Amino acid sequence: MLTSLLLPVLLSAVALFFASFLSWMVVQLHKNDWNKMEQEDQFLKTMQELNVPVGSYMFPGCNSADEMKSEEYQEKWNKGPCGVLTVYPKINMGKNLVLTFVFFLVISFSLAYLATLAIPPGAEFMVVFRFMATAGLLTFLSATIQHAIWFHNRIIGHVIESITYAVIVGAIFGLMWPTV
To answer: Whose CB has fewer CB within 10 Å in the chain, the N or C terminal residue?
Structure first.
């Protein structure tokens, strides 16, 4: 039965990719996710002088639980600022777009596989829609919320996207579910 779902898998991946584009470029749900620093030029100059390598950093940082308990670390933590910094290599937009499409393709395939374990051929639209939309929402939203809890990033746009993606997946699979 999974092979009969290859077309909805592909269509879901394409629809999700397009919805992602609309979310970022047209609706601009993430427009206010990041703010520009007041002293950006000074910050960039300092980062260049320090030659900070590509990677993710927490500040204040520590290398062990013992260091985290130290008076010096606690003082830094309490004094602030505290945060997370990610330094990227040069962005390859083409590569990132391809990886995003592959992500949506893998998710759509995984959701299709999951559905074959729970939904028989010939199921009604609403049965398939409810299952796929719920599984899709759990897939798209769960990690985002956990990440926001720990790293305090803005999630409103991600929640809206996750609900939209879930509805798209539910509708496509509901409409294209095999009859036999």
So the answer is: C
Bin 15: left if φ > 0, else alpha if -120 < ψ < 50, else beta: alpha
pLDDT by residue (tens digit) across 80-131? 999 888 898 898 999 999 999 999 999 999 999 999 999 999 999 999 999 9
Composition of the chain by helix, strand, coil, percent to 5 = 70, 5, 25
User: What is the reported pTM?
Assistant: 0.80
3-state secondary structure of 59: strand
Whether the upstream peptide bond of residue 81 has omega within 30° of 0, thus cis, is yes
- Residues spanned by the domain of 163: 2-33+91-176
**Helix 6-21 / helix 93-118 crossing angle, nearest 10 deg:** 140
| Counted domains in the chain | 1
